[in-house]
Amino acid sequence: MQQILVKKGAFLWALDPLPYVGRSIMVCGLDAVKVGKDAPLLHSISASCNVYFTSYYSTWRVVDGNGSSSAIAGTLMKEALAHFYQKMRRMPDTIVIYRSGASESQETALMEHEMHDPDEGILAAFDSIAEGDEELAAWRGKVTVAYIMVKRSSSSRFMAEDGDNLPSGSYITDEDVMPGGEVVENPMRFDFYMVSQTYVVGTARPTLYTVLYNTLSFSKLELIQLTHRLCGLYMTFAGKVSIPAPLKYAAKLLSLLSKCTQVPKEPPEQLKPWRRNLFFI
After folding, report:
1. What is the pTM of this model?
2. Range list of H helices, 44-195
3. Which of 19, 109, 126, 207 has the highest count of CB atoms within 10 angstroms of its CB?
4. Rg, the chain, Cα only
5. Cis omega (within 30 of 0) for bond into 17
6. Residue 215 confidence (pLDDT)
7. Cα separation, 281 vs 270, whole angstroms
8. Spatial CA neighbour of 193 closest among 163, 245, 158
9. pLDDT by residue (tens digit) across 14-27?
10. What is the pLDDT of residue 143?
């Protein structure tokens, strides 16, 4: 019954008290997967469209060998922003993007192509939306963005002084992530580990978050707190999950699509109304 309610657009719980009062924030999960060696690349997005981070717009695109990943990221972001504006009647003041499906060796490629591509990247998508509209141009000048790479399969392990697992919500910032006193050239780029789940059996597996792009007006601690809160908003599990809810939804959509024998390059017309609901959970 809970799954049916969530599929129809309901939400079972929300944050209390509601954080970030007065700010319009959109959180997004971007994920990508390649099912086989010669298979096309699947990209998905789940983007919040209410103040409680419980309602999401989800869609996908299929990229063949000749396609551009940056073009897909920009297209998905424009589509999500259009739905956000349609539902909220305003554009978000802050956009936080959690990106999975990439390794540490791909950091530079993600920034060059998916974020900074002058024609088809995510920032170019913002410019394209604001082009020719005075109100949206003012929004483009004020919107703040964070682009965070999420790595679930981290080999690092942490524990308390007594040998127990770290409690849910524990985080380790860049002073420990970067040992040896390494100097961070860009203070807006930082890394942190977080243990969001409660582990009773076994050793806690932290998730590594790498903030690759950051123009946010709020502090590092507030971003970490937002990330932890989002881990408790996955509607099919009454507890904390290992990654933020929008990214978990994007990964769940890809999991469904990867099992299909044929996937259309974008949602067919009859499925378009489903994109505003979590039909795939």
Report:
1. 0.91
2. 69-88, 107-109, 122-130, 134-142, 174-177
3. 207
4. 19
5. yes
6. 93
7. 19
8. 158
9. 888 777 777 899 99
10. 94
Say whether pLDDT at 57 is over 90: yes
Pair of tokens at residue 254? 């890809």
Read off the pLDDT of residues 216-241 as tens digits, 9 standing for 90 and up.
Answer: 988 888 899 999 999 999 998 888 89
Rounded CA separation 244/260 (Å): 25
Q: Which residue has the tokens 């050239």?
A: 185
Q: Which two tokens stand for residue 20?
A: 């970030």
Q: Give the Cα separation of 77 and 97 in Å (integer).
A: 10
What tokens does 27 get?
Answer: 């959180």
* CATH architecture for the domain at 2-16+27-268: 2-Layer Sandwich (3.30)
For helices 122-130 and 134-142, angle between their N-to-C axes, nearest 10 degrees: 150
For residue 279, the tally of other CB atoms under 10 A from its CB is 16
| Integer Cα distance of 42 and 252 in angstroms | 12
Tokens of 44: 């998905």
User: How many CA atoms are closer than 13 Å to the CA of 146, on its beta-carbon side?
Assistant: 28
Q: For residue 14, give both structure tokens.
A: 């929300």
Both structure tokens of 102: 């990439």
Q: How far apart are the C-alpha atoms of 258 and 280, rounded to whole Å?
A: 12
Q: What is the C-alpha to C-alpha distance for residues 233 and 166, in angstroms, rounded to an integer?
A: 21
Supply the pLDDT for residue 181. 46
